[in-house]
Design a protein that fits this description.
single chain, alpha/beta, TIM Barrel, 39% helix
C-alpha cells in the first residue's frame, strides 16, 4: 500500500559522510584521552620539588656525544647530573662510549673490546675529541661537583666491568655521588653484592610498563623508556608508592612538549640529549 511518504534520502557523498564519522571518532578519542590523562594528573600524588636534568652522553645535542666537550657543555648548560656508558678496552681500561663498536661515533671501525686504550684514543670522536676514560670523566665531574649516572654497558662482553667501575669510583672518592645503572639484572646483582651501599638504577626499554615489585640488585631507582611512561604514566605513581625514584630516558620522542608532560607526570629526573630543555620545562611550568 502506498503510504504517501517519500523515501528518506542520504545527503552528501561518501567522502563528506566519511569525514563526518572521522570527526566524531577524533572528538571521542580526544575526550577519552582527556579523561585518561586528567584522572592520572588528579591522582598522581606529590611530584618532585624539581626533577633533575640528566645530560644523556653529555650535552650530546650540541657536542659530539660521550666526549669531554659534551660533558663540559652539559655542565655549562646547568645540567644536574652527567649520564654516560662505560665499557672496557682490550687492555682493561674503562672508557666512555655508547656503542659496542666505534664505527658510528668515530672515524674508526671495530669493537671497543678488541681495541687497546691507545688505539681507541687515536680515533677522532668528533671535532677532534678523543674517547675519554671513565677516570677522565670522573675527574671532570669532581671538579664541577656534579653527580654521575654511569651505565655498566654490555657487561657480558667485559668480565669484571662492575668491580672495576666501583674501584674507580672509590679511587676518585666519588661513590657517594654516583648512581650506577644497567639493563642487565645479573650485573646489578653483582654490583649490589660488591658494594651494598652504592645506589643502583634498573633500566627498562621498549614494551616494559611494570615498575613494581623487587628490583634486580635491590635497585632504589628505576629508569623506564619515556615513550612507555607517556603511554602509561601510572607506572610512575606505582614506583613512587614503593619508595623508588623514577628517571626516564628517550628512545626517539625527545621534545619540549614530551619533556613537559614527563615533568607534569612526576618524573624525578629526565635523561635528555639537551639538558637545557629539561630545565626550561620546569622553569616554565
Amino acid at each position: 500500500m502506498y503510504s504517501g511518504r517519500e523515501p528518506r534520502q542520504r545527503t552528501g557523498n561518501w567522502f563528506t559522510r566519511g569525514l563526518g564519522c572521522l570527526t566524531q571518532f577524533v572528538a571521542l578519542a580526544f575526550i577519552l584521552l582527556l579523561l585518561y590523562y586528567g584522572s592520572y594528573l588528579l591522582l598522581r600524588g606529590p611530584i618532585p620539588v624539581r626533577p633533575v636534568a640528566i645530560a644523556h652522553r653529555g650535552d650530546s645535542a650540541h657536542q659530539p656525544e660521550s666526549t669531554l666537550a659534551a660533558f663540559r657543555s652539559a655542565i655549562d648548560a646547568g645540567a644536574d647530573w652527567l649520564e654516560m656508558d662505560v665499557q672496557m678496552s682490550d687492555d682493561g681500561h674503562l672508557v666512555v662510549i655508547h656503542d659496542t663498536t666505534v664505527d658510528r661515533t668515530t672515524n674508526g671501525s671495530g669493537r671497543v673490546a678488541d681495541l687497546t686504550l691507545a688505539q681507541l684514543q687515536a680515533l677522532d670522536a668528533g671535532n677532534g675529541e678523543q674517547i675519554p676514560t671513565f677516570a677522565d670523566v670522573l675527574a671532570l665531574a669532581s671538579g664541577a661537583n656534579i653527580p654521575v649516572m654511569p651505565e655498566a654497558k654490555s657487561p657480558e662482553l667485559y668480565p669484571g666491568l662492575e668491580m672495576q667501575m666501583v674501584a674507580e669510583l672509590n679511587a676518585a672518592n666519588y661513590a657517594d655521588r654516583a648512581v650506577i645503572q644497567s639493563f642487565d639484572s645479573a650485573s646489578l646483582t653483582r654490583l649490589h653484592e660488591s658494594a651494598p651501599d652504592l645506589p643502583l638504577c634498573a633500566l627498562y626499554g621498549l614494551g616494559h610498563f611494570r615498575l613494581t615489585g623487587s628490583q634486580p640488585g635491590d635497585a632504589t631507582a628505576v629508569c623506564p623508556m619515556a615513550e612507555m611512561v607517556l603511554l602509561y604514566p601510572w607506572m610512575l605513581r606505582q614506583a613512587h608508592d614503593e619508595g623508588r625514584k623514577v628517571y626516564v630516558w628517550f628512545g626517539a620522542l625527545e621534545h619540549p612538549w614530551t619533556i613537559r608532560l614527563l615533568v607534569e607526570f612526576g618524573a624525578d629526573g629526565v635523561i635528555a640529549d639537551d639538558p637545557g630543555l629539561v630545565l626550561a620545562a620546569w622553569q616554565t611550568r
